[in-house]
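Quick one: co-fold with iron/sulfur cluster.
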Amino acid sequence: MTIALSGTELGKRLAEKFPGSIVESIPDCLLVNPSLLPEVAGFLKDIPDLDFNYLNYITSVDYYEYFEVIYRLTSTKYNHSIVLKARCYDRENPVLPSVTELWQGANFQEREIYDLMGIRFEGHPNLKRLLLWDGFAGHPLRKDYL
Amino acid sequence: MEVVPDYIYPDREIDRAEGQVINDLKANSQPVIPDSDAWLDAELKQNILLTSVDTMIDWAQRSSLWTAICFPACCAFEFIAANGPRFDLSRFGMEILRASPRQADLMITAGTLTWKMAPNVKRIYEQMAEPKWVIAMGACAISGGIFASGYNVVPGYNHIIPVDVYVPGCPPRPEGLIYGIQMLQKKIAKKSLFHKEKA
Amino acid sequence: MAIKTEPFVLNIGPVHPSTHGVFRMRATLDGEVVLDIEPVIGYLHRGIEKLAEQRTFTGFIPLTDRLDYISSMSNNMAYCMAVEKLAGVKVPERAQYLRVIIAEMQRIANHLIANGSFLNDCGAYFTPFLYMFREREKVVDLFEMLSGQRLTYNFMRIGGLSQDIPDEFLPALRRFLDKMPAFIDEYDRLLKENEVLLARTRGVGIITAEKALNCSISGPVLRSTGYSWDLRKADPYLLYDRFNFDVPVGMQGDCYDRFRVRMEEMRQSVRIIEQALKDLPLKGAVRADVPQRLHPPKGEAYAHIESPKGELGFHVVSDNSIAPYRVHIRPTSLLNLTALREMVRGWKVADLIVIFGSIDICLGEVDR
Ligand code: SF4
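Sure, here it is.
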């Protein structure tokens, strides 16, 4: 069984290491401060007793007031997983740091989110539309796209 | 072998130009392109006379239809199954699949057509040699089917190219497709050189 | 004297016989050597995730069929499991056994097509493909018995199956199982030590386990590197912890290993079905009591299965209405393509086609 790590415990540890990085930690997930996301993710990936070497998926949800981007990480060594979330409150020009440097699996998924949800990922090597074409008007997965 | 140190990112200009083509086609596509051979269905009123030359040409054209490859989605698997060992399309002299549209005269459009794909399909159709026919296979090809309300789906191939025979189903069974091909063969058999020039 | 050459760009696809649909690559070549490729996808982007928001939870099931249309049953199952997790529905035991049987049959059908079209790409024009299609038709027949459809089954429901299996199903499945190992042996005899196949695929398109994990690769492509990661063992869902089976792994992660891993997985699938058939309860409900208009509580859930191509997951968000607020599909095929660039660099164009074929993607799932 893949063990879902408790967000509260991990949150405490991360808050000590990177003050201000954790906005909220509930058992299911960790809500991360977007500006410190690469540091937190890098820590989770590199520290030997966590070793989150596998990024299951990234997705995004539009909640009208904010966009939520969800990262699910798994360690194939210890067989445990954790969910990270980051929120962007800016509807006009939402920006998040990219995690492509850490996990290459993020490459296509960040492009897809940029395409369909309109969130830009800073530091992505080739951020352009993935599924739709250049010049398509709007971002279809937003709730206000009809 | 020399391995390049860095990725090569092609020019963004290409993407922009391709996007422009899609947008233009989307803006300019007609509601529905009528089938130019539709008059064949009203055969009795038109009183067709087939000469023996017509019969000969029609026989030659309908007996060896070569199919161009245009298999975007799920229906393609039923087409392959029809080609496969059980349903064996070669009984009708049809098993040949041409990768190059210039060698084909029949297009079986098996699958959903998206706007991004539409310019390519149009191009394939234009490259095919005359005379050419199109069979729209599956609900998606006829009207967009289950995806008709999607933001990227063309509601039917007949917005892009003229279609001769429609085979409904999601996906149509191989028997259905074979029946559709036979319908097309019947349609070709009714064609007359004389009428074609007049039409 | 070395000839001075210059790189040029070759466009492959989207309509090309070896792209398994409408995949397109922009390949930068130097002579015949591939310097880099850029995958261009989206030619089958039908907006399934957006359409989900306009349907009820049950009404979305038919759309999942059309994702990875080679293994529709697995998609159905993964989506239903995600909604079951969200709504807290418990699936009856008989339905769980039947789901295991169906999922493994689907794996056999998928791997037949994957290997058949892979050999097609290697240049064995259509002969092995027709052999493998012959066996796939048998699985399709069994599924048709269950659901009445040949490709898009729409057979799973939230809380179980749409209906009980017909009486003829089990004897027919028995006959299929008795024959299948002999067929796999036949393929092995024809292909396992085939000189031409070995020459084309041994050592071609190698990927290491670290790279594969870093690129979120799963399924047979990951296991071909020798890394044993199978969700049926690592995170057992349904009843997989009750069955005995091995996880076949490759040696070095080349195209031949991927081919072998799929062949061995078919054997293991037969083994799982045999065990499941033995324990299958003969009577009992196949569907929990779930209202047609399901309102799962507010929240989100993710369920993943080891689909034939790898980890297939559905992330479903509910706002307590009858339609999902958001459905995200974790696309196995798309993520398995992430490393294609690294795998093909430095190989010839002919190898590019072979490597691409060995990944086994389905464009319906890549583009969604
Ligand atoms: S008609 Fe059905 S089976 Fe055919 S392409 Fe459309 S959705 Fe797929």
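If it helps, The CA atoms of residues 179 and 190 of chain B lie 17 Å apart.
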